[in-house]
Hints:
The chain is mainly alpha-helical and 202 residues long. It is 58% helix and 2% strand.
Amino acid sequence: MHEARERGGAGRRNQHWVPLDRISIWLIRSVVNSEDARFFDHDGIDEKQTRIALTTALEDGRLGRGASTITQQLAKNLWLGEERTLWRKLREMFLARRLERLGKHRILELYLNVVEWGDGIYGADAAARVWFGKSAAVLLPEEAAVLTAMLPAPRKRNPWRPSPALVKRSFEVLRLYGTYGELTPEELADARWRLETILTLR
């Protein structure tokens, strides 16, 4: 682990598959809050956000990021590459609708076990053990916020050497617990203090 700390990542694939009930509810909540707030309401595709993204793409002449639901991200991680084309987006949407047949619980379980959290680090349990030295089951709200904040750029955002982007996003993700009534103001203040410690005293 010390060598991985020096490298800021891992040299080989590090992945531990765990069932959803062995992943902290705080990580589940922060990922849903941040990545796909309507996850439990849509059928794999957030049609409103997709329309906005496609309209923007037509105006800009290129397909940007955004508008992908957790189900779409899972489809991309399982079967598609990083290529940003309209054809890939259409395939992603088709596969997302198919994945929805598995149910929301299974989709979250799959997503949280295959998503990348650093160079060679895949899945919530491996990420929790590498970055925080504990299992995914016991992650605290502020730790979950940091992991969630890594997701847009997992190979560039390192909790041991936090960039301004990671710090900013971590606090934004943490605030969402309050927005959705999952932490009281007092609990949120305590979590914020602990987050400041994580990001400044490692």
